[in-house]
Structures are given as structure tokens and as C-alpha cells.
Amino acid sequence: MARYDRAITVFSPDGHLFQVEYALEAVRKGNAAVGVRGTDTIVLAVEKKSTPKLQDSRSVRKIVNLDDHIALACAGLKADARVLINRARIECQSHKLTIEDPVTVEYITRYIAGLQQKYTQSGGVRPFGLSTLIIGFDPHTGVPSLYQTDPSGTFSAWKANATGRNSNSIREFLEKNYKETSGHETVKLAIRALLEVVESGGKNIEVAVMTKEHGLRQLEEAEIDDVVADIEAEKAAAEAAKKAPSTKET
Amino acid sequence: MESVFGLVGRDFAIVAADTSAVHSILVHKTNEDKIMVLDSHKLLGASGETGDRAQFTEYIQKNVALYQFRNGIPLTTAAAANFTRGELATALRKNPYMVNIILAGYDKVTGPSLYYIDYIASLHKLDKAAFGYGSYFALSMMDRHYCSDMTVEEAIELVDKCIMEIRSRLVIAPPNFLIKIVDKDGAREYAWRESIKDAPVPTA
After folding, report:
1. CATH number, domain at A23?
2. Taking CB atoms and an 8 Å cutoff, what residues of chain B touch A92?
3. Which domain holds residue A145?
4. Which residue among A65, A66, A93 sits closest to B62, beta carbon to beta carbon?
5. CA distance B71 to chain A (A)
6. What are the recorded GO MF terms, alphabetically (chain B) (predicted)?
7. How far apart are the C-alpha atoms of A21 and A24, rounded to whole Å?
8. How high is the pLDDT of residue B184?
9. Which of A128, B38, B93, B178 qualifies as a FRET site for A72, CA 20 to 30 Å off?
């Protein structure tokens, strides 16, 4: 099997593209990222590994704007992300220049995925080592969308999804607990999902909320702490409610 | 012939332009907006070849937006002016854009400013500027009546004087003008000065 991962253009005998699978490994080692789509709100939450004391945390933004109505979070190689994000931002403006319309979420997702695929079928290059979560509102219909792309260049739309570290556990949680939410409830659901694998606290999570009217808004640490406190209180209340009926029986 | 002019006031800048779209002896429309809102706090008034005007100003607008997404902060007016001049200069010896530009903006740190950029890529930072045949009259009026630190009312009075002169003294004077203003609250339309309104279209 080791013979088939040197040149990306080569398939292995059993049909694998090992470089792409190794890229997915790189994604699995990256920070956890969660996206949840509500009826009028879409939320991205990303794990923030503990910042070194001397680092200026404002220079490390994990959730970025591609355009006024589109945002992206990713898991994996952050340097590769910079390149992809830059190309996507240029494409957003270029589309507006030639078509006189902002991109749809699907268009820019297709573009990014297309770019990722190109690097799995070109000589001398390696695939991008990241999966992206792309959120946005359709500029004409106002419908919210959440898409995911991965290093192989596939993409699909989701109601809620996770990528990066422990994404399977987060996805399981979301499958069990997802329901149509709006506004603050969507934010709570996203943070609850991320807290399954991340230490609680505003210091360890970066959260951004997108609405049609206000675009992308990064939440302050204090706001995140508030929501986390809410969630813990709800959890405690649910625990207490579970114990209470049994005491009544005796 | 198209007229564009502008001036800087106390804590704002104004750009005024005629609104006629002309091709040889035909007036296509009398309500063409030639002052583009470049971003939240910048105005770009342009005159010249119609196709070049649209193409070039939209290109500058999208690049200014891209800078903001890449860097998280908007370009300063000076930076935008120099970028615009640079693009004109690069194209000059190959495929020149026939567009004259008045770029006005408001920066939080430096306040209002105005830049004169002509089609052969000269750049001047000025308090008052004008392009076109109307400039002969607008510049003379502004030289006579302009003073620094004008209020919005005084500046609009001066703009109206210029428009009056252009209307009365230019043989093919554009009938309608559009005035836009940029200050700390952003760039926006201020007023129209119409002497010919299109005849209302009768309904079936």
C-alpha cells in the first residue's frame, strides 16, 4: 500500500486515492467545528485551542467572512485555509463584477469544492488539508444554507454538521438532538453540540452568528460564557428532574 | 459634455455630476447616476467614455470591497485614490480608460478629503475640483466663493451657483444634476437638481 501514495495522480489497485485519505486524517486532527442551520439564523462554533499567553488572540480568527452574506469555518491545515479563503473572496467579488449579483451559497461552495478537487488531479501538488463549513443566506430568496466540503472535493448541504476533532461524536449528538430552531435557540444548540467534546468556557470556543439583517456577528467571550452558563443550568435542572420522581416514589 | 465637480467642507465632502447619458446627438437618458458609492464612506464621481466609466468604476468598487474582506478594515480615501490612479496608469500605455474621476471620502482619523484623478492618471489632493466643459464655470465660481470650513448649507449654495452658471453659459448644458454627500454618517444621495423631468409614461 505504501507504493501508491507518492504521486497523487495514481490510484491504488483497490481504488483508493491515499493522498486524499491522508488529507482527511489531517482534518480529523484539526480543531472541532460545528455548523447549525436555523430558520432565520445560522451558527458556526469552532474550538479554540488554548492560546499561548503572549499571543494576540485577535489575530487568529477561525470564522471568516467571504462576502457580506457568506461565512466560512474550517478544520485542518490553517495555512491551506488562507489560500482557499483568499481565492473564494476574489471569486465572490469577481462574480459580483461580471454577473452583477452576489454569489449564492451553493455557487461559492461548488467553487471551493471544485478547487479542492483540482488539487487531487494535478501533477506535483497535494490536496488541501481542510474541510470547510460554509454558511450563508441566498441573496434573492433569503433561505439559509449550510454546506460542507472536504479534501476530495465533494460537497453537500446539511441541517447541522461537524468536522475536525471528534466530529463523529458531535454529529451523533446533533442527530439525536436536532430540531428546527431560530434565533438564540440555534446558538444554544450549536454551543451544546461543541461542548460535547470541548472544555466549557468562552475562552475555548469561538462562535459567530449569521442573520439576514445583520450579516456575520462574532460573539464576545462574555456572551458565550452566558450561553454556556444557561446550558449548564438546563443540564443541572434536567439531572435534578430525573432524580426527583424516584424520591417521590419511596 | 459631462460635468463632474466636488468640494470639501467642514466635516464632509460633496460630489455633483450631471445626469445625462449622451451618444453623439442623442440623449439616451437624463437620470444617469454617475456618482458611485464606492464603500460606506467614499464617493466616486466619474465622467468620460460611458463603457469605460462603468467598467472601470465597478472594477475599483469590487477591489475596494475585496481589500476590506481580506484585511478586516476598509481602505483609507488616500489609499483608494492611489490604487485607482495606479490602475489607470498601468492601463495607460496599453489600453487607456477614458475616465475622469473625482474621489471623495471621509476617514475617521483624517476627516473629509477629495482627490482629482484624470484619465492620464494624474492624482491631486484638492479642496475643490471639476471636470468637463462645465469646469470652466464651476472652477471660476468656486475660486470666487469657496472658503475653508464651509457648512453643508453654504456648500450646497455654492454647488447651486455652479450649476446655475453651467446651465446658463454652456451651449449644450446638461439639464439635470445629482448631488451626493459623504460625512461621518456615510456616503449618500443628497439631492437632485432637475430642470427637465421625463414626461410621465401614460398607462394603458
Report:
1. 3.60.20.10
2. 69
3. 18-49+61-232
4. A93
5. 11
6. hydrolase activity
7. 5
8. 96
9. B38
Does any domain span residue A226?
yes
**Pairing state of beta strands A160-163 and A33-37?**
antiparallel
How distant is the Cα of A89 from the closest Cα of chain B, in angstroms? 7
Asked if A131 and A150 touch (Cβ cutoff 8 Å), the reply is: yes
Contact assignment for B58 to A90 by CB distance below 8 Å: no
Give B153-174 pLDDT, tens digit per residue. Answer: 999 999 999 999 999 999 989 9
Taking only the tens place, the pLDDT of each residue in A98-138 is 999 999 999 999 999 999 999 998 877 889 999 999 999 99
Total domains present in chain A: 1
Q: What's the CA gap between A82 and A102, in Å, rounded?
A: 22
| A156-196 pLDDT per residue, tens | 999 999 999 999 999 999 999 999 999 999 999 999 999 99
Please report whether residue B204 resides in a domain: no
Task: Give the CA-trace dihedral at A205, A210, A215, A221, to 10 degrees.
Answer: -20
In a domain, A238, yes or no: no
Strands (E), A138-214: 144-149, 155-157, 160-163, 205-211
**Among partner residues B62, B63, B70, which is closest to A86 by beta-carbon distance?**
B70
CATH classification of the domain holding B107 = 3.60.20.10
Interface contact B58-A97, CB threshold 8 A: yes
Strand partners, A157: A147
* DSSP-derived pairing of the beta strands B42-48 and B99-107: antiparallel
Q: What percent of chain B has pLDDT over 90?
A: 90
Put simply, whether B197 touches A (Cβ < 8 Å) is no
The predicted model scores a pTM of 0.89
